[in-house]
Amino acid sequence: MLCFQFLALTACLYLAVVNAHPLQDLSVTKALSAHSKLAKRTNPSIGKGIDVNDKDEGGKLVPRQGRPTTGAFSNVQELLDYAVFDSEKGIDTSSPIFSHYFLEEHRDKVKKVLLKLMGDPTSRKDHKNEGAGKLGQITFQGVDTPNTGDDAGCAKPGTRMYTEYYDTEAPVTVVCEDAWVFPDRDDQDCDELGDTLSDDFPILGHLVLHEYSHWDWFLRDIAHGSIVDQHGADEQISGYGLENAYHDLDKKYAVLNADSYAWYTTEVLWSILCNKEYKPPGDDDSD
Question: Which pTM value belongs to this model?
Fold first, then answer.
């Protein structure tokens, strides 16, 4: 009997250690626990401050009931899948979309980064809309954790998400309130997007992909550097945002610029789904 109790205690202590999250205090409710059991193993964990039962906020991250390909985590894999495997506009084709964001000499490296986030599938059939297993090591939370100094967290203008501990095996992505206005792919409409690339194009999965690309611990060996929000040689020119990623950032820096990946996959996605070639941002008056 004592032996059984000792073994049970040992097992409990072992499980507590291997499941411990040293970087933050996570609160797991019964609802979150149930969701975790049902979620794909490749989806990030849900932490404090996000309610997956709230369809207007946390529920946008995960699949809707009976619709397994909805939700931002699934939408990221769709963005990646089209960019890598589409036979007309994907990365192995002559589509001009790649050159909108990257240099030709970086094509192979960009593809490797995208594939890594997908779990390195050899084909679309092999992908099955599931991502790299290690994505399950990321935690998404709604609790803002700004640092002292220049890091204002969600209070910084234009911040929708940001990632902490990106150089570790267990990063934490904070989702700010401003992120929840972004739609699911199924809630976006081709007619409403118009003919010109604009800030209306990103879905919530676009933001999630941007944050995935910051995971230095996971991607650094492939990217040969940290994928950040680049400024290039000119601190006044940011790589963040459509106009900057498309027009302003020197493309030699784009392979290490998070928004270049997000916007590249976003333009590929809507070009395919809406069967349209979009005008460059700012070209509303062009013929």
Answer: 0.84
